[in-house]
Amino acid sequence: MTREYVWLITGANRGIGLEMVKQLLQSPSNIIIAASRNPAKATELQGLAEKAGGKLHLVALDVTDKESISQAAQEVAGVLGGKGIDYLINNAGILPGGEDTAFSLDVDILASTFATNVGGPVYVAQAFIGLVEQSEKKTVVNISSVLGSIGSDVGVIWASYAITKAALNMLTYKEAKEKPDITVISMCPGWLQTDMGGPNASHPVSVGVEGVLKTILSLTPEDSGKCFNFDGQPVPW
Ligand code: NDP
């Protein structure tokens, strides 16, 4: 019998999250929990679930709402019936500050971006870590951005978003240090053509996601606490 791996992806109803679901469904060894704020409106996910023969489960999860996260964790535990989550993908994210800068940004926007881009992954990991630890792969992936890398010298704009992704990278490091039994990484998916990346982004979403999944599947425990680009190369902090 083929070994099955369980994936949970937040923000799975569009963009990078949805493309991950589509690519993962191509392998019969994957069971996918697609989390989104409103599964009743996630028509593409519903269509995929109808054809997936029980391999795709839709759950409601708003990463800024602790109650919603805890309800989702209970529901997922029930669906999995004793199985763990091999790959927990903290993908949901927002960029409301646009091209703001350090000397023009609005701290209220920074705070709301932080609540989703950092607070979300914090609470999702806290709620689901038990299920991750029950799995074979025990892997948490925080979808970050090169924009959060000081070492990549990314310049002035996108400031509030970049600050949250730099904080997310520190979260990755802290989670990895605290729990050596799991593998936690930050992953930069590339500049991709999604609602967030816009139509002029460097790559179609399919290309970035292919690289992201290939990189995740080749991780070893020694990679924990690090940041990788979608081409598998390490990204400096
Ligand atoms: P999109 O804007 O296309 O999609 C964002 C996803 O996040 C949607 O599914 C959205 O759900 C979900 N989301 C937002 N807020 C919440 C919330 N509170 N609870 C649950 N889900 C939420 O973005 P991308 O797909 O492009 O980005 C995905 C991730 O990749 C983000 O973390 C982003 O920062 C990162 N990234 C993207 C890059 C790019 O070029 N596209 C580059 C580098 C990083 P809803 O439909 O309900 O709003």
From TrEMBL:
A UniProt-annotated Pfam family: adh_short
GO cellular component, one term: cytoplasm
CDD domains named in the record: carb_red_sniffer_like_SDR_c
Superkingdom of origin organism: Eukaryota
InterPro entries: Fungal_SecMetab_SDRs, NAD(P)-bd_dom_sf, SDR_fam
A single GO molecular function term of this UniProt record: oxidoreductase activity
Family: Belongs to the short-chain dehydrogenases/reductases (SDR) family.
UniProt keyword terms in alphabetical order: NADP, Oxidoreductase
SUPFAM superfamilies the UniProt entry points to: NAD(P)-binding Rossmann-fold domains
UniProt protein name: NAD(P)-binding protein
Source organism of the structure: Lentinus brumalis
